[in-house]
Design goal:
This protein is mainly alpha-helical and 251 residues long. 81% of the residues lie in helices and 0% in strands.
């Protein structure tokens, strides 16, 4: 799942606009970049480093890095409220980065499996920017996790009216349509997604499920094996592995 949405370059610009000299901005941007990289390799160390930086005047970027370090440690229930509070304080300061941080907060609540809170945060972000495609996709995934497939479908349908060529939205809409009982339209969406991006694992996983539902077990197996080959250590890879195991048990 995509969580880190604010780019280092974006934060570098943030520093340049707030700090008094370019040299200070450059140093702070470099510290932020190093901190973010550390969240991916050693999140515990990144968290401690971010707190020290915060205590010496690191401000929003230091707090942001600390929250993402908590995400890296899988402490989603701690990261989510930090990100939400950070977004609120950034909004009061007039920051241009409120929407991405709200999106991260929503994703963290999703990972914490607090779907009502995740939906509330994503919806609050969409009130600020109603046509934001990434936010609509985020909220659709939250709604799907909460088994609210009709509203998930509606968000994805809006995305595809705004941009008909988004393969990820097509794959997710296909999954929602399957849950709503329309397997034919679901397959149309998934096939279109794969025509746009042949290695999209979400679409391959979903097509495998649709093949299995129609008794095409060999085709389902091919799709799931391809997911495992492309992306073995992801949620999609785990789902493909479980589906293959179920397929073998039925033999």
């Amino acid at each position: 799942m995509k969580v880190i949405l604010v780019t280092v370059l974006g934060w570098a610009f943030f520093f340049v606009t707030l700090l008094p000299t370019l040299s200070h901005a450059t140093n702070a941007a470099e510290e932020y970049e190093a901190c973010i990289k550390l969240t991916k390799r050693e999140p515990e160390l990144a968290f401690e480093s971010a707190l020290s930086w915060r205590d010496t005047g690191g401000g929003f970027p230091a707090r942001h890095c600390a929250a993402l370090a908590l995400v890296g440690m899988k402490k989603y229930h701690l990261a989510a409220p930090r990100l939400e509070k950070l977004a609120d304080e950034m909004a009061k300061s007039g920051s241009a980065f409120v929407i991405p941080v709200l999106s991260q907060a929503a994703n963290a609540w999703l990972l914490a499996e607090d779907y009502p809170r995740a939906n509330a945060v994503a919806s609050a972000a969409l009130e600020l920017e109603p046509g934001n495609i990434e936010l609509l996709i985020d909220r659709s995934r939250i709604l799907a996790k909460a088994e609210n497939y009709q509203e998930a479908y509606e968000d994805l349908d809006l995305v595809l009216r705004l941009d008909p060529t988004r393969p990820d939205a097509l794959a997710f809409r296909g999954a929602a349509l399957r849950q709503l009982g329309d397997n034919q339209r679901a397959m149309e969406d998934v096939e279109l997604a794969l025509s746009l991006q042949p290695d999209l694992v979400e679409a391959l996983l979903e097509r495998g499920i649709l093949h299995r539902l129609t008794g095409n077990n060999d085709q389902a197996r091919q799709d799931w094996l391809k997911v495992l080959d492309l992306s073995p250590h992801t949620p999609e890879g785990e789902s493909a592995r479980r589906n293959l195991e179920k397929l073998d048990v039925r033999k």
